[in-house]
Amino acid sequence: MPTQKLYAGAKLRETRQRLGLTQKDFASKLGVSLPYLNQMENNNRPVSTTVVLALAQEFGFDVTELSTGDAERMVSDMREALADPVFADDPPPLSDLRLTASNAPALARAFLELHRTYRQTHERLASLDEALGREDARTQPSPWDEVRDFFHYCDNYIDAVDHAAERFAQPTGAQRGVRDIAQDRLSDMGISVSLADTGKLRHFDRDSGTLYLSSRAEPETRTFQMLLQVALLTQDKLIEATLDLARFQSEAARAIAKMGLANYFAGAALMPYGMFLEAAQETRHDLEILANRFGASIEQVCHRLSTLQRPGAKGVPFFFVRVDQAGTITKRHSATRLQFARFGGACPLWNVHRAFETPGRFLRQLAETPDGVRYISLARDVSKPGGSFGAPVRRFAIALGCEVKHSDALVYADDLDLTNARAFEPIGISCRICERTDCHQRSVPPLERQLQVTPDERDVLPYRVG
């Protein structure tokens, strides 16, 4: 696969401005001419190897940040938005989208916000009989989507909260487990912890100062819920300060994000960054060993692995996704070039959907996306029983994966033939933006392609993609 040129003008300009340097001084320190730096900042030229090395040597810059961040996500999100039939007549080329994401990220975000508002308005008009007369019939993004995008564009890593959780879980001189630390912290606040035979995972009675945890839940779930309550009681100022910076558009979004940050703290305390990263590398990311060592569930471990993006101490860049039985994505994050559909389900050729057919087993898949990038994907079903007869069982499937260039760090890549191109299954992101012309699972035609319909022929699809 040809080497992809690195255009990172916005990140380069942002770095220079953060350092308080003029273009002339910055160019001098990087060992390039002023016109050359100007061209790189405006994405007229790719960032050279000389500049990458100088950034690392002169400023201690984590050069992996040049190839990550919002640009790839925004390009993927814009492509999906432009797959909307309203844009079908004259969609802009991919090169224009990349330039917009790199040179005008604020404009790209404004476009995505506008399209999201349009979609919500369109959906409300489709059910006008219900929307008429309702006080909440307004054109603003759904709180859930707004919060999901907040974490998405933060790389699913919240530095201040992550460090706070690590300090909580590893106090100086302490040799106890995080569950005992949490219980002692609650006790110091006059709060007792009690098990209750109830379907509610957690209930905090403020009047009696009692935290009730469900005896029906798994031990790792009870520990997580205890840590979540600790976060709500002890980290309120930090969480509120983070929410102030996010500037959510509604109180509902802020409330959802607050719980999201509390959940983030709980996961980061259960699996402290430094200790967890070291264990992940030592075990070559064996999910079962990590789950047992940290008293966490497989899903919690997978989610935590996708957050290991601390500057200067990054782990393997993983993608993580959870889908329900209808194929709807309920959790998504990617620190890789692979991005997920914002609307609808994931590619049906992806092994995450087959995980429902093989409960309790890990499925491995070598996959290749239309851009030629190859991945190793690990999928497994996750069942969440209700804890009593007749209680509904919630069933999901999760997938964790990374580019094959990191396969040496994964125990799950052992004995797979990574050199055989035919071993990689073709997958996509969303049918409307997938460029494959011969996919037998295609549900709708791709964007930017002409269709040919021949009445006298019928192949797998009722049309041919030109």
From TrEMBL:
Keyword vocabulary terms for this entry: DNA-binding, Transcription, Transcription regulation
Organism domain of life: Bacteria
GO molecular function, one term: DNA-binding transcription factor activity
Record domain HTH cro/C1-type: where: 12-66
One GO term describing the cellular component: cytosol
SMART domains tied to this protein: HTH_XRE (SM00530)
Xref: InterPro entries: Cro/C1-type_HTH, HTH_RamB, IrrE_HExxH, Lambda_DNA-bd_dom_sf, ScfR_C, TransReg_Diox_bact_type
Similarity-based family: Belongs to the short-chain fatty acyl-CoA assimilation regulator (ScfR) family.
Protein name: ImmA/IrrE family metallo-endopeptidase
Organism: Roseovarius bejariae
